[in-house]
TrEMBL record:
Protein origin, superkingdom: Eukaryota
Subcellular location: Membrane
Full protein name: Bestrophin homolog
Native source species: Aureococcus anophagefferens
Gene Ontology cellular component annotations, sorted alphabetically: membrane
Membrane-spanning intervals of the chain: 418-437, 449-471
One Pfam match: Bestrophin
Length: 541
């Protein structure tokens, strides 16, 4: 498959990424149009057709062959003959055929433009479809483990695409998605299924069986072949449903562990901030080592700052060790610089231990968790955490964070057993081959094109997309930390957690003090004379 042509704009090669980060750590704004100039000009509804820069003529070719002939006549001498040479009959005929081909080409473009307007398909969608097929075709022989983003900007771009897909799932009704061909051909599972060799082989078997049956090389079927295929379809349906359900269970189990990690970091920072001395500003505690010690039993804000930095660094390092997709170059170091998670002294201490963030054992992750527990222990020994309940609560939350990340490591290590995965794949492939042969044998000599070829082909194509699509989606959901579009937006998780905990840490607002209950209003004494008391049995005169 041909590699994607580099995008050219303004005579320079433009990369499909955000580029390097700015000094503030924010990625620069992406280019408003992801398509190069010569591709943006190829609109199905446009009136002007421009060729690629490598074949750009001196005159823009407008609609029809007459303009092309006029453009070529300008290059000729007087009388329409070329300068210094007589045009032969072959050259004139070639020009006529070229003009005719240009007219046919424009007719097809106009027809495709009308169809595209009805189906909400534009040129950008077509280009995305081609890029998707090219990318999936080139990545068919690569494992999801071996594909890694090169830079931090690529990681952010992949994460943005996943967030866009999640936003589309939240906003759109499943019924409306049926007619969105632009999403079905670019963001769905269809391009990945059609680019696999299994789908192409099944369709090839169907075409071969249909051709042999039509040519008389294959006799009529004996017995009830349709009932056999129906029985096999019921058996395959049970197998594929059980496999998909197991993959979905793994997906949501890992998602729950991911969200526990995010919530636990915010809980630790919130608890430490509530136990700290709110009168000491954050900046003063970080810049001045001689700041007055807070009262006994109050956690200094500098300790809460350490918990924030160590846990967020551990959060990022955990995902770098969890999957080869994220590395020290494309995630950890840029993320640490972005949020200022490690000081110069801590960076030297981390480098001195020669810890690798990509190590599958998660040694860097465990080291940062140990730093957080050591900060709590030192604060307790200095008397800054006087209550044992506060100490135990903070330690339990840090341990819960470590345990949730360890759950992700366990799920990553213990994959679906190979024997079960192979059985499901083998049964589905055999069923598709049997179905392709059975549908192809319906195209006999007396069969019509519609009933004998078209509808059986749709049946084979639809069944192939469903079965292989469920297998592909199930595998992607069982490993949601890779590069699949259905995976977790890891960068959004760790970045939003760091921003939220930073906002909690920088908050200086105190809860309003409890006001004592207002005393009951005093009884008012009457200034008038009290009414006379009546004696028993006496009445008023």
């Amino acid at each position: 498959m041909e590699p994607a042509a580099p995008d050219v704009e303004g005579g320079r090669e433009r990369k499909d990424s955000f580029g390097d980060l700015s000094e503030s750590g924010e990625p620069p704004t992406p280019s408003p149009s992801p398509l190069p100039t010569h591709r943006r000009a190829r609109s199905l509804n446009s009136i002007t057709l421009m060729r690629s820069p490598a074949k750009q003529p001196s005159t823009i070719v407008t609609r029809g062959g007459a303009s092309a002939r006029r453009a070529r006549s300008d290059e000729r001498g007087p009388g329409g003959s070329p300068v210094g040479r007589r045009r032969s009959f072959v050259e004139e005929s070639r020009d006529v055929l070229r003009d005719y081909a240009e007219d046919v080409r424009w007719s097809l473009h106009e027809y495709a433009g009308r169809c595209g307007a009805c189906c909400r398909v534009n040129t950008e969608t077509v280009v995305r479809v081609r890029r998707s097929l090219r990318w999936y075709g080139s990545a068919a022989n690569l494992s999801n483990e071996t594909m890694t983003p090169e830079t931090f900007a690529d990681t952010v771009a992949i994460d943005d695409k996943r967030c866009d897909l999640l936003d589309s799932s939240r906003r759109m009704n499943p019924v409306d998605l049926v007619w969105r061909l632009d999403l079905a051909l670019t963001a769905s599972i269809v391009p990945r299924v059609l680019s696999t060799w299994v789908a192409r082989f099944v369709l090839g078997v169907y075409v071969s069986a249909a051709v042999l049956k039509r040519g008389g090389a294959v006799g009529d079927k004996e017995g009830d072949g349709d009932s056999t295929v129906v029985k096999l379809s019921i058996f395959v349906s049970f197998i594929i449903v059980f496999y998909s359900n197991h993959c979905y269970t793994r997906f949501y189990r890992q998602y729950e562990a991911v969200k526990i990690c995010c919530r636990t970091i915010s809980d630790v920072v919130s608890t430490a901030r509530a136990y700290s001395d709110a009168a000491i500003p954050v900046a003063e505690a970080l810049d001045d080592d001689d700041v007055d010690r807070p009262p006994a039993g109050r956690l200094p804000i500098a300790t809460a700052e350490k918990l924030y930095r160590y846990l967020n660094a551990a959060h990022c390092a955990g995902y770098c060790a969890l999957t080869p997709t994220y590395t020290r170059k494309n995630l950890f170091e840029p993320f640490v610089r972005r949020h200022g998670l490690l000081s110069a002294r801590e960076k030297r201490a981390f480098s001195a231990q020669k810890l690798s963030t990509e190590d599958a054992s998660g040694e860097a992750f465990h080291e940062f968790v140990l730093w957080a527990l050591a900060a709590l222990s030192a604060a307790h020994q200095r008397g800054e955490i006087s209550s044992p309940n506060e100490m135990v609560a903070l330690q339990e939350m840090v341990i819960l964070f470590r345990g949730s990340m360890q759950t992700l490591f366990d799920e990553r290590f213990q994959e679906i057993p190979f024997a079960y995965s192979h059985l499901v794949s083998f049964v589905c492939a055999c069923y598709l081959l049997v179905l392709a042969v059975d549908m192809g044998l319906k195209f006999g000599a007396s069969s019509s094109i519609t009933a004998g070829l078209f509808f059986p082909c749709l049946t084979v194509l639809f069944t192939t997309i469903v079965l292989l699509g469920l297998l592909t989606v199930g595998k992607a959901m069982s490993q949601p930390t890779g590069l699949d579009p259905e995976g977790f937006p890891i960068f959004s998780y760790i970045d939003s957690t760091a921003l939220a905990s930073r906002k909690i840490l920088d908050s200086h607002r105190k809860a309003p003090p409890d006001e004592p209950d207002a005393p009951p209003p005093p009884k008012r004494r009457s200034t008038s004379n009290p009414p006379p008391k009546l004696r028993d049995g006496a009445g008023l005169a």
